[in-house]
Amino acid sequence: MAEKSERGLIRRRKKEEIPSSELSTTSLDAGSIDLTPSTTSIKVVTEATAIVPQGETLSTDTGPNAQAGYSRRDSLRGDAFDQPEPAAMLTADRLIDVSPKNRTAPESGFRRFLYFLSLKTINLGDNLRTRERKATDARIAAQLDGGAKFVPVLTRKGGVGKTTVTTLLGMAMALVREDRVIAIDANPDRGTLAERVSKSTRFTVRDVVNRAAAVDGFTDFSTMVSRDSTRLHVLASDSDPMLSEAFDEGDYNVVADMAARYYTVVLTDCGTGIVHSVMRPTLQRANGLVVVSGGSVDEARLASETLTWLEANGYGDLVRGSVVALNTATQGTNLVKLDEIEAHFKSRVRAVVKIPYDPALAAGSVIKFDQLHKNTREAARELAALVVEGLAKSK
Questions:
Q1: Where are the domains of the chain?
Q2: Cβ of 335: how many Cβ atoms within 10 Å?
Q3: Cα 144 from Cα 135, distance rounded (Å)
Q4: Residue 367 to residue 228: CA distance in whole angstroms
Q5: Residue 74 has pLDDT above 70, yes or no
């Protein structure tokens, strides 16, 4: 009886020490309870479980290297770091204030008037047309690495506006780019490229070949080229028909090597056809390519055959990265479906640009870029932007 009374007393003491609410929610290990009369307290040990988001790790480092992995995201979250910030934290998005008050003032119109009227507190920015123009400027002015870039302008048929396209392309580039752009007339049959700008010299490619050894710098070379108001430099072809056939592969290499010293972009106005001797070094140096097509059936077919000839002779990569300039001012344009011609060339080349009819171009005289129709200037600028984008990707 005494033993039963003692066990009952222990049970009553246990009930007094542990509330019933805890007994219902806590699992006890029988081995951790001392049933001797002198021990009536129970120690329950619980462990806290840290919840760590997926993709992150729980760091237990509390030393001087804690939170050493800086990132802009951590800074924006307000995380504190135990070490000084590295220079990499000084990013443009963190430091540059792009609020309206610090944006570039609108160029013109009501937006510019409002900007200054509000003491520069209201800046609506440029209108859509101005933003598009600046975007095209940025494409044309893109930096080109790796030395001079050569771009031949060619076709198998004469009279489709090849020289005109070369001039427009060069002017659009030179007007925007900060480096030098030159157009070389490599037509062995007496080209007319120099007649599309205001001539300031009588020198030709023949003079460059003959004086190559004496040219000691850009100042000497610049005396043999004509300069347009857009800053385009033009090197004329041989003007004497008796000497035109003498301009061959070796001569072109001399002129091209000289131009590569002083110019970033070298445009080559190739002669009619693609089998004369100058064409080989022209294509071998090419970093980009512009093929000119007229708007008639035979002109479009000959331009397409030019692409086929290039592919068959190992210039497939050059063809795929080329741009077709579709001159819509040639005869027969009004009778054909230009969209079908454009669709055909888009299946073969990187891009197609339509050059619209412009009376200032049809005259065949000196071209003044600022006097051309707006659509003509925009087409030339788009052609220049596309060509530069291709050059930026070339090796």
A1: 144-393
A2: 9
A3: 17
A4: 9
A5: no
Q: Residue 132: what residue type? A: E
Q: What is the pLDDT of residue 131?
A: 85
**Alpha carbon of 298 to those of 157, 163, 331: distances in Å?**
9, 19, 11
Give CA separation, 6 vs 12, 14, 19, 36, 339, in Å.
10, 13, 21, 11, 107
3-class SS at 167? Answer: helix
Closest by CA position to 118, among listed 132, 133, 106, 136? 106
Show the tokens assigned to 289.
């390519």
* Model pTM score: 0.72
CB contact at 8 A, 168 and 377:
no
Q: Is 33 a residue whose pLDDT tops 50?
A: no
Give the model confidence (pLDDT) of 344-395 as tens digits: 999 999 999 999 999 989 888 899 999 999 999 999 999 999 999 999 988 6
Q: How far apart are CA 156 and CA 298, in angstroms?
A: 11
Say if residues 306 and 291 touch (Cβ distance below 8 Å): yes
Adjacent-strand bridge partners of 355: 327
Candidates 164, 241, 163; CA nearest to 206 is: 241
**CA 83/CA 86 separation, integer angstroms:** 9
Compute the distance between CA of residue 125 and CA of residue 219 in angstroms, rounded to an integer. 42
pLDDT at 127: 80
| Sheet containing strand 233-235, strands side by side | 226-227, 233-235, 181-186, 265-270, 149-154, 290-293, 323-327, 351-355
**Residue 352 neighbours by CB under 8 Å, 6+ apart:** 323, 324, 326, 342, 345, 346
Supply 153's token pair: 């302008």
User: Do 157 and 294 meet the contact criterion of CB atoms below 8 Å apart?
Assistant: yes
Mean pLDDT, residues 39-63:
46
CB-CB contact of 153 with 165 (8 Å): yes
What architecture is the 144-393 domain classified under in CATH? 3-Layer(aba) Sandwich (3.40)
How many Å is the Cα radius of gyration of the chain?
38
